[in-house]
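tool=predict chain=A
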Amino acid sequence: MGKKKFILFFCLFVALSGCATRPTDPEELKIYEETNDPLEPMNRGIHAFNQAADKVVLKPVAKGYRAAVPSFYRGCVTNFFDNLSQPVHLVNALLQGRFTDAGATLGRFVTNTTFGFFGLFDVASEAGIPNPRNDFGQTLAKWGWDDDGGPFLMLPLLGPSSLRDGIGTGVDALAHPMGWALWNEHELHYGLVALDGVDTRERAMDLLDDLEKTSTDYYATLRTMSRQNRRKKINEVLNNKEEEKPDYEADFSDIEWED
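tool=predict ok
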């Protein structure tokens, strides 16, 4: 809880002094409105912090994890945490009125928990059961908070988001069954959260390395990539036909572990 309060107060403190000045030039104003990033000075500061933390801690640990743990077992870790998140996806699918998604999510959870040894093996995918992954940010969009979801936000350690999706991430985290099951087992809970983070960082390593090497402005690239891919996810919930293909086809939740 103390860590959450620290992050909240950190964001509020930086936000008070981190708003970008609204330009008066028509062309600059158009770009300003299209990027929808009025907190850019704050966001770039948080991005710099994230990069430093990643360089010193997260990426070296992820590299060590990749080197020490064979891909088969890394896949089991990925499957386990994906299965644990299915109840959250189920609740969001129901809140969105997407009952086909809800049925698939429930089917995945029961199948993988029962026949996949508590989710270590993804038997459901082998059986052809989809994995929709509905989140509360999508739920808020379904309930009327559409568009870009408010101004762009770069969250400490978590990366690109928006006001709507940042709230959604917080709600999903609070609703996650792991937190409720391990309410009084703080060390185990934090250990599992750390393992999930390391596993996610390892799966995203090649993509992020490539983006950073090929980007003239890595922050702007992450902002564009996250916006376009979230728009794709929101369009799926709203049953909107996507007008154009995103420049960056990258959904971290779909990154596969390597063979």
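The first helix runs from residue 2 to 16. The longest strand covers residues 152-155.
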